């Protein structure tokens, strides 16, 4: 971290600052230029609040030069994190380290018939994990909020029937007691900085799929991963699902450059959710191919089964047939995808 | 709500759509043009998911024409919401309906001495409510997370001493049991769409100060207010505190046009937090004047007491002296501020 | 276009509005609901200014239901635009309609040796067009502004030597007289809404490569293409090159979902510039693969030749060796890329 | 400027970098830490391209510590720029240095009657300059593009009649020959980085009102001012007119914190255009008061005269009566506005 002092900084304030930094275990390299004095901070600056320094009367500018995350940082952990999820027939699902996994299923669990049919269909096409929402974050209090506990029970049934491990979202620590049979806990985009929830899943012994918030930088995503890892749970899977921009033609803007960039700076696996990002079902297929091509470790895709009953073809979801076609084209592209410099 | 059907829409899908709409209690005005058919939906469309419709094969476009919020909507509640907060000496603090309140205090409660000194100082200058954080949302797991229960106790002490009602932030439903003596529950920007927390404060009998999320539209802010109000708690105060944009010269971009716009579309009071929005203490004074001029119902301002001890002057916070100077200039501007068309 | 009138609209204003619409050749479908009256406009609404209507006292809301562009609209021109660029050895370069072209070369033309060496190298690797800047838009007036006329002359030399057609940027109508031997005129992102320049290139008989502005929607991009096409020049190639968002880890955010979406709504070819979007050379390779996978009609890539002389490896540019490696992997992925629903 | 080298930087590349920096007249302070080497650059770094450095193999990070603009920088020119515009009756209009000016008039010049009536009305209410568009930048090629030369002639007439100096927009250097009688040349938001146009107005002997681009940072605004000033024309007036964000409730988001921030970092006057920023006429009044309260040097406001004829009340424009009411309230607020720390 570099601190640029003001030209006419009050010497007393400057001394206070240097004392306080020393009390935090930070050594200081002082470099006096023609117009300005620069303090180079040496030591662990991850706990230093940059906004606090910026607000000091004697400080002109502060620049962080090293990342504020440690456990998620590839510099300190050069090898890919590899997460194994046991399945009942013995062969675990392996996420990270060069594998490619497809998490598929409906947005919401709606009935036993629905979740079981979709689960069977996506398994047959090549999905390796089942997704389905039991607790649903909805912008409107008047919208369907999910089947809750009953939805979790139906996901267990579908898992029992197909052998697919299950990914499902938690919205509040109090719901976690129902998650015993669930395999991956999903943190939704709106909860990416729900720090109390992050701390709680950090105490669980289950992989966490952490979605990037709509307006969060990659550094903030890694800081939220760091919350979970600091609690002892290092099995974190990151998920790019689109960011909020001025463009209204798509629901959000899928930031695929995040994939190779995250792979450079962190060892955690990165998957992509093209369904929520775009909000347009016809974009799911091409954006899935693009995500695979630039090196994603997997995809999370919405698949819905019953177009006639479910009001045509459902929001942003593929039919099982469209999903099957997508997996075939993905399999053709995967051997030539990007795998690092 | 208006649905534009595709030129060659499948008649079966169209029938499914119309049946489903009818099942939701929605009447349909069908208008057949040269190229397109338009369905005008009549009835309560607040529960209709616009994304669901947009994803249908037979639908070209959907436009919402009425607001999806009801309880927060000024159309249905033309009179300003006025919130009274009792104080121990009898005269309640009144928020909304033409009053102007200043909520002031430190970002975090740090000690009894600190919170009590600041409370006394801001009261003397003209603050009508005390703020102070006991539970602190921090981007980094390694940063100070607040004094928690002990911080709440110190806020009670400062309230007892000064008579100022207290505003403090909750981060998780489990913390609410400590809030008995607190007067206004603050929901921070990162929790604006923590729907489980919104439902919980909707069951409380205390005013809620709801901060706009960094990447949330005004409509989403009102939908989150609607969550709280739908639970039975109609005492909601909205707070503009800056949105995330491409500009990096300020921490966030304070959206002051939100003030007169919110006053048009909702009856809830609106306050402004210039300290967090800008992240630069020298901008707090001018932006407070601007907020007052365009009609804000109040301000939430960070004030810190002990510059020497507390590492110079603290982040984005005013000293008690600077705060006093600001209140004097505010009082000069208030008689001529905007009060509606 | 749909106009929702206010509940208590002034009948005189409403009549004025209807008369004015009729004078513009617009027929009106009037639909009276319980609370509101809706006017459905039938006819060519491309010239109607939506902001003008929104500002009327009697109008509550206006929604455009059809696109304001015609010549660029796939609805009216279902077949792909295919642009042929003659080359001196007879076989034209064909852009659009299922082909894939790579435009490669240095950011700025710096010397005869540089541009000719890069041109030879990229041709050998498989580039089909040469890029190079003679007029450079630079944020700072103190930065190098390009070789101007001399740069154009050197591009002609490199074209003569390699047979590669040349793409180069124009910044002002007065420069066009120098462009006789250039093959494609590039309009940079900052000039996407320089309407006088668009009108001028609309009068040229040369293909135009139109880059999306940093803060422009896809609809605005198509409106700018419409400016060029309305002038008589229908040979427009669109280019996605990243948009400005809150994320600072990359220079801009590459919006790849724009590719399949543009292919749905317009018949114009779409290429991607991953070099400028990301600003980080290590991201060029993976993002090029992703762009190809989701159906781009080509790429524009910066290649620099002389790392030792040119201050290591140049900004965001690949070396000829890295470019060669990229083209090989692109060729492996192209047979399985997305080609439409 | 600070350069952080990579841990295992290639010594040859590092030498190349240091040689090149020396050739640019930059001295280097080398500071070797435990893990990294930091180069502190001393000298005029305004011409150094930060992106170029960031792209070097041997560079981990680069941070600019001083501003890249000089002529616009308050550090080097502490006194306010004050611009005098002569009027025919002798008393010049003075912009900057503590004055407050209101530029008012219609969006487009439409007829002699219109511009003269509006000019008389706004003068009587207290406007000190007249605005009116003769060349209009329009998103659609099918929309009205302005009266052009005839519009300029009518502005001259209105100036002759009222004595008000005139502000009008230029879109292309070729139009400037018509501007002899115009008093301030306006550069619109979309042309803020039309560098050829900036260079051209930099050669004029007339004040320039430079509007901030929809997606441009304050630093980029000052770099564009620097383009004009570097050409010899130091009479630049900056104008905040809203930035593009995710919020769609207003056309753009008016960034009022730009006012006090610009006043800190530059000596140039800053005015605010609330009409274009919001796109909603009812917000013009409150946002004008807010702009004045936080220290703006003036306002640019759209006023339209003939509501009945001009399709009710026109887009985002005030009637002369509403404008008169606004000026009265502004005059009440001005004595207590922010005037600096």
Explain this structure to me?
The structure is a homotetramer of 341-residue chains. Chain A has 341 residues and is an alpha/beta fold. Chain A folds into 2 domains: 2-63, Alpha-Beta Plaits, CATH 3.30.70.1140; 83-333, Aldolase class I (TIM Barrel), CATH 3.20.20.70. Helices cover 30% and strands 18% of the residues of chain A. Chain A is built from 10 helices and 14 strands. Chain A has helices at residues 11-23, 50-54, 112-125, 149-162, 195-202, 218-230, 258-265, 274-278, 284-293, 320-333; strands spanning 2-5, 27-32, 37-42, 59-63, 83-85, 93-95, 101-105, 129-131, 166-170, 184-187, 208-211, 236-240, 270-272, 298-302. Chain A has an 8-stranded parallel barrel, surrounded by 5 helices. A 4-stranded antiparallel sheet of chain A has the order 2-3-1-4. Chain A has a two-stranded antiparallel sheet with strand order 5-6. In chain A, a hairpin with a 7-residue loop joins strand 5 and strand 6 (93-95). Chain A is elongated, with a radius of gyration of 23 Å. Chain A starts with a strand and ends in an 8-residue tail after the last helix. In chain A, 57% of the residues are buried. The mean pLDDT of chain A is 90. Chains C and D meet through helix 1, helix 2, helix 5 and helix 6 of C and helix 1, helix 2, helix 5 and helix 6 of D.
């Amino acid at each position: 971290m570099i601190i640029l002092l003001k030209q006419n900084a009050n010497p007393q304030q400057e001394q206070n600052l240097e004392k306080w930094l020393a009390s935090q275990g930070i050594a200081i390299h002082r470099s006096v230029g023609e117009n300005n004095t620069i303090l180079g901070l040496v030591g662990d600056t991850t706990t230093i609040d940059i906004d606090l320094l910026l607000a000091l009367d004697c400080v002109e500018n502060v620049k962080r030069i090293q990342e504020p995350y440690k456990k998620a940082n590839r510099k300190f952990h050069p090898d890919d994190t590899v997460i194994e999820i046991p399945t009942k027939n013995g062969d675990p699902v392996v996420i990270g380290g060069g594998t490619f996994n497809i998490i598929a299923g409906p947005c919401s669990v709606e009935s036993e018939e629905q979740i079981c049919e979709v689960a069977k269909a996506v398994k047959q096409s090549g999905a390796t994990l089942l997704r389905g929402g039991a607790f649903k974050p909805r912008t409107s209090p008047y919208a369907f909020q999910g089947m809750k506990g009953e939805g979790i029970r139906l996901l267990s049934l579908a898992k029992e029937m197909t052998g697919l491990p299950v990914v499902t979202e938690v919205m509040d620590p109090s719901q976690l007691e129902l998650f015993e049979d669930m395999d991956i806990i999903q943190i939704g985009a709106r909860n990416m900085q729900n720090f109390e929830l992050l701390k709680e899943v950090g105490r669980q012994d289950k992989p966490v799929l952490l979605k990037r918030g709509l307006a969060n930088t990659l550094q903030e995503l890694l800081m939220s991963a760091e919350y979970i890892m600091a609690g002892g749970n290092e099995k974190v899977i990151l998920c790019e699902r689109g960011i909020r921009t001025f463009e209204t033609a798509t629901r959000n803007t899928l930031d695929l450059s995040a994939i190779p960039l995250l792979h450079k700076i962190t060892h955690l696996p990165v998957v992509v959710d093209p369904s929520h990002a775009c909000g347009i079902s016809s974009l799911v297929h091409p954006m899935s191919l693009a995500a695979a091509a630039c090196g994603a470790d997997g995809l999370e895709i919405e698949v819905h089964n019953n177009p006639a009953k479910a009001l045509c073809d459902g929001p942003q979801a593929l039919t099982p047939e469209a999903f099957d076609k997508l997996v075939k084209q993905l399999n053709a592209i995967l051997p030539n995808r990007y795998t690092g410099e």
